[in-house]
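tool_call predict_complex ligand=magnesium ion
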Amino acid sequence: MRDKIEQVLFSEAQIADRIREMGAQIEADYKDKGGLLLIGVLRGVAVFFGDMMRAIDLPLDIDFMSISSYGSSTRSSGVVRILKDLDENITGRHVVILEDIIDTGLTLSYLVRLLQERRPASLEICTLLDKPSRRLIEVPVKYTGFTIPDQFVVGYGLDYDQKFRNLPFVGVLKPEVYAGK
Ligand code: IMP
Ligand code: MG
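tool_result ok
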């Protein structure tokens, strides 16, 4: 897998450091709120979720949603179908949505609208990566790990064609990997 990587953007150590900082920030923001609910959007968030939840030393619940956005593998359309809804009722709760990456913002903006209808006490977004130059619709992101340019990245949960999620770092693929498709 690693031989297909052109460049490592964020190493395991860099990601771990940043997650420790974000965890401390979330702890400070929620310590007086009597707990929080972390929601993960499958599948890309799996790795980040596991690390992030352990960086927050507060009573918290976790829950997951699975959605599919209509569109190609590298571009989303913003039309989202719920494949698995939350198990928890979020009404009156302090919710933080964890995401792997925000690109156009279409997926997340749809999701935020949907979850707001359930009247949580608060709803914030925490993303490992953000590509603001690609944004088509504004989404209010409270916690951002790293801001990146318009580059397709893989690893640490992020996939290309469902592969490369298990790389422990975030990197850019060699062009020949795409050329083979
Ligand atoms: P958007 O913000 O609605 O455009 O879609 C975000 C989703 O697209 C993410 O949750 C990823 O699943 C996928 N995505 C966007 N950019 C990348 C990337 O650089 N690598 C891997 N997946 C990406
Ligand atoms: Mg995703």
